[in-house]
Design brief:
Largest sheet of chain C: 3 strands, antiparallel
Strand order of the largest sheet of chain A: 2-1-3-5-7
Number of strands of chain C: 8
Number of strands of chain A: 7
Structural class of chain A: alpha/beta
Oligomer: heterotrimer
Shape of chain C: globular
Strand order of the largest sheet of chain C: 3-4-5
Radius of gyration of chain A: 17 Å
Largest sheet of chain A: 5 strands, parallel
Largest interface: B-C, 86 and 86 residues
Strand content of chain C: 5-15%
Chains: A alpha/beta (168), B mainly alpha (313), C mainly alpha (636)
Distance between the termini of chain A: 50 Å
């Protein structure tokens, strides 16, 4: 227990200062989200058939280096608590209905953010007998963060950009 | 009349400060694991946003589900009128004592557990079952721990206990007192859903206790539930702080002692929050079926503290 | 024919309540029918304690008879026995000598026995009635022995003479008499370990009778204990009180623990009766102990707490039994695993059961909370009695009471949540219909009673203290505050349930109004329960009562000693294809296994041994008679 605390003391805060662009967006997010989401955006992650590469990157988002929470963004456990669905993967036939229901279960106003190339249009899985297509074929999409997989920094930048689009 | 004012004042203070306490704890914990963490005011932003959202309600639920958040808010407000926070005698009238305060929390637990069962989802039932199992062991321990103090103070009135114990500082290191403190502290972790009993930040349904019960809530209902649990957290910490370190709690409403009382409470709460953050960073969550052993241990501590309060001079 | 019967029971209830209340307020009288019978004849007397219990029985009989009116439409039998049952229960507290008392007592037992057998076509009710008959007569045996011994020692069977002669008896004699009487009364009250009949008999009876049995009949055991311990024998040494208190602590804990793992709605309530009798006994034992410690002022508090909980339990337990009866009549099952979703189909019954649950779980501001609070305060007052041994007993009782309150809450979350919330678990529950007007009216009366008893402690506690004062030999009742606030021993403790109730209501109303004005939550959307995207929600996804109680089974496994029975049936071709899995996790009843089975074993073995002398030959029997005569002659 003491060793753990000593480690924490010695390590200090390791959150990386965001790159110039994201810093700007971060400030922008604070301003815009202040209007729409009161500086608080809760995210529910939905895996609609992903290969789990995007999941690893999303997991990195919550860690000390990228620290999603400093912007008032948080991953939550239930779509009822969420303002934003973060959807990964091509939508497989079996996951289409659960995705639709998750969208239905999320209270308005809400955003849908697609993560990764697969979610955009099926990516390398497009045309597979088991895949229905992109996320946009099932639920209305507000933004796509491309990449295979997108890095946590790209994810952060994308989320912030989306909140900028909301303003227009 | 003065105590009515005092009561309303401190209830308003508690209602306003409760999310801040949770926010400070979250930020501290983030710093301890090397994150920059959210602003300490983040819980206020979360609450404001939730109030503006549309609640989604399951057709399976009944009026119990919709009434419960309001009842949670109400019990925590009434409890804030009863617990000595910045005055020793804040109540509207002498309306009750620790048994009443704990029973109010139990009333909240009762309805929240019913609300968990109401939607008919497996998670809600799981959370309800676990939370009442923990509460059934935790609530008696709180009552016993406070009784141990009451027996020494010769009154079961919370304000009276604080006044009399503050007059005899030597009591604070009496063995029975320390045992009661240990029992109360462990139970406080369980009742307010902190590590190592429950992880307030978990996303994994199967490890949840409190969170599993409120998975179905959204919009302003969720805001009320979250605010009520922040209130409960504040009230438990304040009870611990004022009962076991009964110094600097003024008995009157004059401006001087008032400022002193607020400052003293803030200092005590800050100390407790730092301690909690350190503990939550350093310990892992216990396996669910280890938790009752911990609570049974604290119940035993409570029994011993009452016994020693009776027997030792 | 049955409707006039139940209506006259209602009338009897109203009149009895009035008479009993008058008795509490000082309308004392005596009535003798000397010539009718030997041994002092029939004799009745009214004093405040009798008045309280007469009023309690009669007032509870009003709603239960109303409910009986509805059930009688389907099954008209049994009203005469029911009337006799109510009458006998009113007569028990009025009895002024042993003969009258025992006659009324036995009439009460026999009437309830035949009501338990009322629907006695199933093996279950026959067995329940059999166990009940055996246990109640075992209790009667203790009572009879105790009363006859007292009669022999004092030379009279009139209670007034016992009262006068008790101080002259030796401590041993008084102790023996108390032990015998207490065992007899505890068996009727359902205290551990004499409780085995209660969870069998109460559920087997028709629900309005269960309500009476649980609500008031077992309270007459408490009445007997009060009379025996404090009145007839004029109080005793501290061990009487400590024994009663510890028996109460054990009963409370064991009762609630068994209730937690029982999923038969009415049996669960029956186990809770054991728990509540335990709470009453804790208060009563505290009162007796304080009296022995020469603190009559505190003894009043303990006895008043016990009396208060007695009254409260009658209100909420008969309410719960009537509601459970409504569920049983509507769905045909008492098994919670087959219920669910009744809150939308039986809204009135659900609301009534909820009020009863909040009350019995000891939650503010209803009545169960007030009497538990008072019991806690009575226990806490032992800090002013500087006797370490006694204090330890009080600490144990405190711990047991606190734990009981927590567990009772958990149990009623289960009882209400599984029975009334979410989706129905069987077609019968899905087609449930609300009960008729008489039953709803009866439940409404009891809901009002729970509310009034919760909000009016400043009127009720002094009245009960007045009843307790002569019992504990206090000069005057202690100061108990007034107005809206109950105050004990100066600033030791205070409680004002009306203020709490108003504050709670304001606490709901103000935020509701505030957020409503701010326009919060004006829109809402209905959408299915979140289940991680699964396609249909069915009742099979709900938590069951068994699952709900499982944490408790694990935590208290040293007490339940559950057995895991796993039975897997596989396909004949391969073990890997499972056809059926049966899993059972029953508990092992402690007292049946460790107390009753060995005792019955001894009984059976000795009976078998005695069989040897039962040869069936007339010559042998003549020889026995000769031997007996000779023995008598020699012993003279």
């Amino acid at each position: 227990m003491l060793r753990q605390l000593r480690l924490a003391w010695r390590t200090g805060v390791v959150t990386e200062p965001p790159p110039g662009q994201t810093e700007a967006l971060g400030a922008e997010l604070r301003r815009l989200a202040h209007r729409r989401f009161g500086r608080s955006l809760h995210i529910r992650h939905v895996d609609a058939g992903s290969c789990n590469a995007c999941e690893l990157e999303i997991a990195g988002l919550a860690g000390p280096h990228y620290d999603l929470e400093r912007y008032g963004l948080r991953l939550v456990a239930s779509p009822r608590h969420a303002d934003c669905l973060l959807v990964t993967g091509p939508v497989t036939l079996n996951m289409a209905e659960p995705l639709r229901r998750t969208y239905e279960a999320t209270p308005d106003p809400k955003l849908v953010v697609v993560v990764g190339d697969c979610g955009r249009d099926g990516g390398i899985y497009r045309g597979s007998y088991a895949v229905l297509g992109g996320v946009g074929d099932v639920v209305p999409v507000d933004a796509v963060i491309p990449g295979c997989p997108p890095s946590p920094r790209a994810l952060l930048a994308g989320l912030l950009a989306l909140l900028g689009r909301l303003d227009r | 009349m003065e105590s009515l004012l005092a009561g309303l004042l401190q209830a308003a203070l508690a209602a306003a400060a409760a999310p801040l306490l949770t926010g400070v704890l979250r930020t501290l914990k983030a710093r301890l694991v090397g994150r920059r963490g959210p602003s300490v005011l983040q819980p206020y932003a979360d609450l404001r946003k939730l109030l503006g959202k549309e609640p989604v309600i399951s057709p399976t639920t009944s009026w119990i589900f919709r009434v419960t958040p309001w009842l949670l808010a109400s019990t925590s407000l009434v409890a804030a009128l009863l617990v000595p926070l910045v005055f020793t005698r804040p109540t509207l009238v002498p309306a009750g004592n620790i048994i009443l305060v704990m029973s109010l929390f139990m009333l909240a637990t009762f309805f929240l557990a019913l609300a968990g069962l109401d939607a008919g989802s497996a998670f809600g039932g799981l959370g309800a079952s676990r939370s009442v199992a923990l509460a059934a062991l935790a609530e008696p321990t709180v009552i016993l721990a406070v009784f141990a103090l009451a027996i020494r103070a010769g009154t079961s009135d919370l304000g009276g206990i604080i006044e009399r114990l503050a007059a005899e500082p030597a009591q604070a290191v009496a063995p029975g007192h320390l045992l009661a403190l240990a029992a109360f502290f462990i139970v406080m972790l369980a009742e307010t859903g902190r590590l190592p009993v429950d992880n307030p930040a978990t996303h994994l349904e199967l490890t949840m206790i409190h969170e599993a019960m409120v998975l179905e809530y959204s919009g302003h209902y969720l805001a009320l539930v979250e605010w009520a649990s922040a209130m409960k957290f504040l009230l438990f910490l304040a009870l611990l702080a004022n009962l076991f370190f009964p110094f600097g709690v003024p008995a009157s409403l004059a401006p001087g002692p008032l400022i002193l009382g607020v400052a003293a409470l803030a200092a005590k709460l800050a100390g407790l929050v730092v301690a909690l953050a350190l503990i939550e960073t350093a310990v892992a969550k216990l396996r669910l079926f280890r938790v009752p052993e911990l609570l049974a241990g604290s119940f035993a501590l409570g029994v011993v503290s009452v016994t020693s309060a009776f027997v030792l001079p | 024919m049955s409707a006039p019967g139940y209506l006259s029971a209602v009338l009897l209830g109203v009149l009895g309540t009035a008479g009993g209340l008058a008795g509490m307020l000082g309308w004392t009288w005596q009535l003798g029918l000397h010539e009718a019978l030997p041994a002092g004849g029939l004799r009745l007397a009214m004093d405040p304690l009798s008045g309280l219990f007469v009023a309690l029985v009669a007032a509870t009989a009003v709603p239960t008879s109303l409910a009986g009116l509805e059930y009688a439409r389907r099954d008209g039998r049994g009203w005469l026995v029911y009337l006799g049952f109510v009458g006998a229960m009113i007569a028990v507290p009025l009895a002024a000598n042993a003969l009258t008392f025992l006659l009324a007592w036995e009439l009460m037992s026999l009437a309830s026995y035949s009501l338990v057998l009322h629907r006695g076509r199933s093996d279950e009710s026959v067995r329940a009635a059999w166990v009940y008959a055996v246990m109640t007569h075992a209790g009667l045996g203790f009572l009879l022995t105790g009363m006859l011994l007292l009669g022999a020692w004092t030379g009279s069977l009139a209670f007034a003479d016992w009262r006068a002669a008790a101080p002259m008896l030796t401590p041993t004699a008084r102790g023996v008499a108390f032990a015998l009487l207490a065992l007899g009364f505890a068996a009727k009250a359902g205290a551990i370990p004499l409780h085995v009949w209660l969870p069998l008999a109460h559920p087997a009876a028709p629900s309005h009778v269960s309500a009476l049995m649980s609500g008031v009949m077992i309270k007459l055991g408490i009445y007997g204990l009060l009379r025996a311990g404090l009145d007839w024998l004029g109080g005793g040494p501290a061990w009487w009180g400590v024994a009663v208190m510890l028996a109460g602590a054990v009963s409370a804990l064991v009762g609630v623990l068994y209730a937690l793992v029982d999923h038969d709605l009415k049996r669960l309530l029956a186990f809770h009766s054991i728990e509540n009798v335990g709470i009453i006994l804790i208060g009563l034992g505290a009162g007796m102990t304080f009296r022995a410690a020469a603190r009559p002022d505190l003894a009043v508090l303990g006895v008043a707490a016990a009396l208060y909980h007695t009254v409260n339990h009658a209100a909420f337990k008969s309410l719960l039994f009537l509601a459970a009866g409504a569920v049983l009549h509507s769905t045909g099952t008492r098994n919670m695993e087959h219920l669910g979703g009744l809150i939308s189909r039986m809204p009135w019954t659900a609301a009534a059961f909820l009020v009863g649950s909040v009350a019995i779980a000891g939650l503010p501001p209803l009545n169960g909370f007030v009497s538990e609070w008072l019991t806690f305060q009575a226990l806490l007052h032992s800090l002013t009695v500087p006797r370490a041994g006694l204090n330890l007993a009080f600490a144990a009782a405190m711990a047991a009471l606190a734990l009981t309150a927590g567990l009772a809450l958990a149990c009623f979350v289960k009882a209400f949540g599984i029975t009334f919330l979410a989706l129905p678990r069987s077609p019968a529950a899905a087609q449930a219909r609300e009960s008729g007007r008489p039953v709803r009216g009866a439940m409404g009366l009891l809901v009002l009673a729970c509310g009034a008893l919760g909000l009016g402690p400043t009127l009720i506690v002094p009245a009960l203290a007045q009843v307790a004062v002569p019992l504990v030999g206090a000069p005057a009742p202690p100061a108990l505050g007034g107005g809206l606030t109950l105050r004990l021993s100066g600033d030791f403790a205070s409680l004002s349930t009306p203020v709490v109730a108003v504050a709670l209501a304001l606490g709901v109303a103000l935020p509701l109004a505030g957020l409503g004005l701010a326009g919060v939550g004006r829109r809402r959307r209905i959408s299915e329960t979140w289940g991680c995207g699964r396609l249909v929600q069915t009742a099979r996804m709900e938590y069951t009562a068994t699952a709900f109680a499982n944490p408790f089974k694990r935590v208290f496994d040293f007490f339940y000693r559950p057995v895991r029975q796993l039975d897997i049936e596989v396909h004949p071709e391969s073990r890997l294809f499972v056809r059926r899995i049966a899993y059972e996790n029953p508990i092992r009843p402690l007292f049946e296994e460790w107390l009753y089975r060995p005792a019955l074993g001894v009984l059976h073995r000795s009976a078998r041994r005695l069989q040897a002398i039962q040869s069936g030959s007339a010559n042998a029997y003549l020889l026995y008679i000769l031997g007996a005569l000779l023995a008598l002659l020699v012993l003279r």
